[in-house]
Each structure stands twice: as structure tokens, then as C-alpha cells.
Amino acid sequence: MKELASRGLLALAAVAIGFAAADTYVVVLALPDMMTAAGLTVAELQRAAPIISGFLLGYVAVLPLIGRVSDLRGRVPVLTGCLVVFAIGSVITAAGYDLPTIVLGRLIQGIGGGGLIPPTLALIADTWPAERRGMPLGIIGAVQELGSVVGPLWGAAILAFGTWHDIFWLNAAVGLAIAAAMLRHRPAERTRGFDLWGLILVGIASICLLLVMMEPESLTTGVTSGLAFLPVTGDSRWLTPLALAGYAFLLAFVVRQATAARPLLAWRGWGEIARETDLWGAAALTVALGAVIVTFASAEPEQAVLADDAVVLLPIAALALAAFVWRGRRAANPLIPRGSLTATPAWGSIAVSFFVGAALIAALVDIPFFARLTIAPDDQLEAALVLVRFLVALPVGAVLGGWLLRHVPAGPLTAAALTLSGACFLVMGSWDAQSLESFSSTVVLAACGFGFGLALAPVNAALLEHTAADVHGLASALLVVARMVGMLIGISALTTIGLRTFRGAVAKIPSVESLCDGESTACGAYTGAMRDAGIAQLQAVFTGAAVAAFIAAALALLLLRRRDIFSS
């Protein structure tokens, strides 16, 4: 019965993860309209980057803390809480009226969406023995990767009948619905009683603050209702009577939670959790990860690997990381418990995940670029469909990788899978302008995605098998962080290498004046030479991705070994 209940909870968590993963990509189609709502023009695309990087920052920066809390507090409360946070972020984004509020909403969305993964992976480890974890891990990996395919389609379907706001309103509704379904899986001692007054107070506060953000015309133009939207002082909408009423109800809700016998937030016990978690260490690690993410996510590869603010951000990251290490040695209860990741397959899985991310991002970003450069110069949809050949094979590989874990050790299976992806990248590194027109390119793309998918479950399984049950959430969080940081650093480094190749190729091309000389045929030759230079750039990126995949394969073969044979 317990395993059956856990299966139901895992199914809900899988749906939530798939939905959150889709939200990572759904914003791509909605971005132009979101920019318009934020007062930005198409020419100000760089200023809109925080709409995407804000989600990524929230997704990664606090994951270790969320993972650790799930170890101490339990999987269900953290999963439910993350869904509520995701819904709140969706509401703020949907009601956002300028760039800061939209970015804030995306940041909160990222925290909630990313926070779903560690407790879900830990839940699998709690429910299934090591020899039976492969298939559920593969399914979760497949669902997560399927979001990259479903996300744009989901966004396109909504935009066909509504606006970008509707995407995030639906996000909030789905998130809250799944959270409500998860409540039945709470421990029995926490399900008795319900704080109706707390719910009423927070509901009224939320409605007031939402109306402040949305400023519906039917209310703001009313003779009487419009008074609620006039600032008491200054010109900020957050100083209107309606906003002040929202603050008052929110304060009343906080007081209610502190005094109610059965508070809505069930805050009792969190003080003990805080004492068992090194919050200062968690804050230092969050700052370090945040600085690294912003450094690479906001970089302009045409200029450099790092962002212009790297001279400030990287020292901040270094100091914060040093503070985290110092706290880890001195704190009574460090964020990463001492000795929890000393087993070679445990930290080896994290290292493999980093290089997997560095290789994978090259496919996600540069395959569409290659298609635009060669077969679809004026058709973004066709270029995206080329990437779909890669993406659809990922979930297939993930499920098969989970099944194969019953018969093949994690190390060799991961090494073989990533060697396949690396070999495919080498083939892609030799493609020319006509390569995508042949059926063999589809086979190469599908095989490359299949290899990445095949490696997902073995890497997760090796980590969970070689860490203690009381740190599974934290360990899973670190695995996700390593992959995302690998993606950020990988795309910056590989793109910079590719651009150097491009510049070298361009330097060898005669000037356009000397080639054209008024003849259209010669001018066409110059255009073709520039296209070939762009192809050379992407060939260099794919070759670099192959190197990253081969490094990951070698590390997997050396480090992801069975405990019963190789552990000390």
C-alpha cells in the first residue's frame, strides 16, 4: 500500500516536472509580446534577457538548499511548497506590467520549478531499492526532457487562442491543482484541521495586490472604484489605498499563522529545520551560483566568454564560494554534511553531469543555427523542426536507459551512451551546406539525442546508490546544479571557440569589393564564402561538444563503479 501511494505521488511529481520543464521553453514564443508589455522594442532584445536568465537563476541558485530541506522536512511538503511557489511566480508574471515585475515572476517560477526535481529523485530512492530504480529514474528523465518538445507547442497552442498572459495564468491553475492533489499524500498527523481564516486573509491580500498590478480599466476609470488606485503619496501604484489594504491583510495573515492552532502554512518545526541547516552556508552558495549564472548567462559571445560585469561578479563568486567552504568546515550542521559525497561514484556523477551539460547545450543552441545557415535561412520553424529530430530521441533513450540499468552497470552504460553522442558530434563537425538535406543527418541527430537520454538514469542511479538516504535530496540538487552550470560555461566557451574559427575563416576571404566588382556571380561567391565561414564556426562548436561528451564518457567509465566491487 505504501509503495502504491508513493507511485501515485511520483506520478503527480512527474506531471509537475514535465509542466515546469515545458515552461522553460514556452517563453520563447511569447517573448516578443512580453517585451512589448514591458515597454521594450525588438531592438532591445538584450534588455529582455533577464526574462529568461531570471528563470534560470531561480531554477539553479537555491536548489541545494531546497534539496537539503527535503531531506530534513520530507518530500511531500517540499514538493507541495514548490508547486505553490511556482504558481505564485506564474501569477506575478501573468499580471506583470513592467520588466522588473515580469522578471521577478520568472525568478520565483524558476525557484518553484527547479525545486521539484531533487525531492522527486529522492522520492524514487526512498521508494525503490537500488536494483529497481532505473525505470522510474528513466521515466522522470524522459518527462523532464519531453518538456523541451512540448513547451513550444504548448505555447503556440495558447497563443493561437489567447495572449501571453494566458500561458502563465494556466501555469498557476495547473500548479495549484497538482499541489492540491498532493495534499492527500501528506503525513496523517498534518492533515487534521484547516485554517479557514488564514486562507481568507491571504486570499483577500492576494486579490488586492493582483488588482494593483493589473489595474483593470473597468475599476480604475470608475468614479468611486478609481479612488482605490490613486496613490496616497507620490505616483507609485504600490502606495495606493488598495495596495495598503493588501499589506494590512497580509500582515493579519502573518499574525494568524503565528497564533493559530492549525496554521495554514504549518510553520511549526521549521525553526528546528533551520537549526539543522546551515543557512549562512546556503546563502553563500546561492550568491556564488547566482554570480556565476549571471556572468555566463548575460555574456555576449561575439565579444567574450564572460559578461562585461565579470570583473565584479567573478570575485564575488570566489569570495562567496570561499565563505561556503569555510562554513562547511566550521558549522555544526553544514549544508553538505561532512562525508556525504566522499564515495567516488557520488562526486563522479556530479562531474559527469557537468560535462554532459557542456556538450548537450551545443546541440540545443547550435543545431537550429546550422539549419538556419544552410537549409532554412528564412524559416525559423523549419530550423526548430531540425532540432526536434534530436529532442524526440532524448525521452526514448531515457526510458531505455532506465530499463537497461537492470542488466548493465551504470558506468559502462553511461560511457557507451556518451561515446555515441560524442561520435555523432564528430560527424556533425564535418557537415557541409547540403548535409541536412540527406536522411543520414536525421539518423545522426536522433542517435546523438538518444545517447544523451540513455545516460540520464545511470548517472542519477549511481549518485543515489552511493549516498546516504538522508542526503538524497541534496545530492540530487547538486547533480542538477552541475549540469546547468556546465551548460552555461559550455555554451560560452564553445561559442567563443567557434567565433574565433569564424573570424579566422573570414580573414581569408577577399574583400567584397574585390570579389564583386559589379558582377552578381562574384557577389554570390562572397555570400557563399561567408556562409562557409559560419559553417566552419559551427563545426568547431560541434567538435568541442564531442570532446566534452568523450570526457564525460571517460569519467563515467572510471568513476561510476559498483560499490560492492570497488568501494573501500
Automatic annotation (TrEMBL):
It is a multi-pass membrane protein. The keyword Cell cycle does not apply. It comes from the Bacteria. The keyword Acyltransferase does not apply. The chain crosses the membrane at residues 48-66, 78-97, 103-125, 137-161, 167-184, 196-214, 238-258, 279-299, 305-326, 347-371, 383-405, 412-431, 443-464, 476-499, 540-560. InterPro entries: MFS, MFS_dom, MFS_trans_sf. This is MFS transporter.
